[in-house]
Design brief:
Elements lengths: L1 H18 L8 H17 L4 H25 L4 H34 L5 E5 L2 E5 L49
Antiparallel strand pairs: 1-2
Helix pairs in contact: 1-2, 2-3, 3-4
């Protein structure tokens, strides 16, 4: 989607240069910003999200301010300004709200850490929270897009708990790191 928006800004810069007497060459800057962001997300995938979540809000706000200054310098008619400034205000609003959300998510993660620990299972980092003891081991895995917390208050169903019959430690006693 970001690459598509980048193409839109490239089209604005190219078409205004070719077909109008007031070229909007400054539109290449948002095209470059959105294109690079989209390519980073495609190239690095979700692993780039923690870094990009902190980088894109100030960069988008700086870009919106720069676009507004550039648009104000160009001699636009009143009608054109009414069309262009709302388009410039959208990245500014998105950057402020995205920055606020990133900061609040980081503060919430520090204030309320997840219980349990992360373990390595075949190269994948999984979060494991163990409670209770005995056998058999019961694993609750939420489905349908629910979070694990949605099943936290659910008591296990089925037969009553039995005492442990083997003494081998499970993954909670000896996590693989």
């Amino acid at each position: 989607m970001l690459c598509g928006f980048a193409l839109g800004w490239v089209a604005l810069a190219a078409l205004s240069t070719r077909y109008t007497d007031r070229p909007q060459r400054w539109a290449a800057a948002p095209a470059l910003f959105l294109g690079v962001s989209g390519l980073l997300l495609i190239g690095f995938g979700p692993a780039a999200n923690p870094v990009l979540n902190w980088l894109w809000p100030p960069a988008a706000l700086a870009l919106a301010i720069w676009m507004s200054v550039r648009a104000h310098r160009d001699p636009l008619g009143r009608g054109r300004r009414w069309l262009l400034y709302p388009v410039i205000a959208l990245p500014a609003l998105a950057s402020v709200s995205g920055g606020y959300e990133t900061a609040r998510a980081a503060a919430d993660a520090r204030a309320h850490p997840m219980p349990g620990q992360r373990i390595d299972v075949g190269g994948h980092r999984l979060h494991l929270h163990c409670t209770g003891s005995g056998a058999p081991t019961v694993v609750f895995e939420p489905g349908a897009g629910n979070a694990a917390a949605s099943s936290a208050g659910s008591p296990p169903t089925g037969s009553p708990p039995r005492p442990a019959t083997r003494s081998a430690p499970g993954p909670c006693a000896d996590p693989v790191r």
